[in-house]
């Protein structure tokens, strides 16, 4: 069965979008559509142009026998900033302030469309970094970690506060929570992470950075490397920040419990 | 700026795939491409045909002033069954057996591509069901719940074993774990779920069904309705199953600790 160009373009778009960061040999498409490689190359040129124009991503072409095409996610910076400003407006609703100065964010983190969008933004910042795995700590960072990992085509490992019978042997470390200064424990299944892995650390929220710091200590136990750190929201507490090199999408610049006021601005991602 | 048909088809495919189950008025596309609605309708007819032919999904067209087009995810049953058989082979690796007869599944659940694929399969079974929210219990079910919810365009609520300061007021219930017969606690943030919501319960693994049963009790507290129950893996224990109406993709038919043997077959989804 022969496919028309219009049909090929639609199916290839779906295929590339659902196989991010995977090298697809041109023969895969040529066989899929019983088409000549030259036609497939023309199709890919059109797709690449539209993807770049619309801020969807880009196609990398690798020449040679082991070559092919790879979809890399990208985002439109202008669209991203207006999306993040919209999120800032959502977050600064005074009804979100909980006792202790915490913010209720379940509804935001519970919205898969928001999580996907944020994950895509973070992933786009790391498409050219060597990353083998995304790590997060249970539970709030999990959805975001998966969204990022999906776009980067790498697995997710989840650090826990307690060990589970379904995890097998684990490595456990103690760390000091940055804000409460209490000693806490983190556990990771031994089978989860290979020595020498390059790890992107993801979390939803960073205050002083104690939890992220704990994950960095965990990586040392596994002789793995920190390839990057990214959080959705950081609270501004520059004087006692435990972590240096990180990416944040939103920065809480003021949480005033008495006045019930929150201020949020774009993070250092922009 | 005018767009050629080939460009429109690529961008519309991306738009529809990233906005599942959302009604998109034709004017959105007409304005986006400065094209006549009649051209957009023709484009959509081509996309619909390819989506259906390739098992990507379908487009529902709603006529009238409040009308538009809606992408509904679908899966190809044959492809799905061969994918699930591949997963069964992965799962039956004797190295997965942990003390107590538990199975190590972190690597499978940590693979975003597998989770997306499974989520898509589950979502396709519920596209015509009235669902307002997806519910799961922390932590292993979370990635799958988000994958399903993303395709269904609904939020996720996460039941926890313990309450967190960042959740605000919570409702707590006790339930009996089906396999260990112990009393356990489940907690859900009060703000998370509206009365009368139609809820799809998702989990990674179901043994006797105690945890799913606990979630059903939680829904009663919120006067919400069970719209469906779906799990990735069920362990065969028909004699003491606490839950009736559910969907499973994989059924463990035998876990023999002594012989280090596991048997897994397709679940009742097929």
Automatic annotation (TrEMBL), chains A, B:
Signal peptide: none
All copies of domain Phosphoribosyltransferase, residue ranges: 107-251
SUPFAM superfamilies, per database record: PRTase-like, Winged helix' DNA-binding domain
Gene3D superfamilies: 3.40.50.2020, Winged helix-like DNA-binding domain superfamily/Winged helix DNA-binding domain (1.10.10.10)
A Pfam entry, by short name: PuR_N
A GO molecular-function descriptor: DNA binding
Domain Bacterial purine repressor N-terminal residue range list: 4-71
CDD domains associated with the record: PRTases_typeI
GO biological process annotation, one example: negative regulation of purine nucleobase metabolic process
Keywords: DNA-binding, Transcription, Transcription regulation
InterPro entries: PRTase-like, PRTase_dom, Pur/Pyrimidine_PRTase, PuR_N, PurR_Bsub, WH-like_DNA-bd_sf, WH_DNA-bd_sf
PANTHER family: HYPOXANTHINE/GUANINE PHOSPHORIBOSYLTRANSFERASE (PTHR43864), PUR OPERON REPRESSOR (PTHR43864:SF2)
Family label: Belongs to the purine/pyrimidine phosphoribosyltransferase family. PurR subfamily.
Assembly, per entry: Homodimer.
Name of protein: Pur operon repressor
Gene that this polypeptide is encoded by: purR
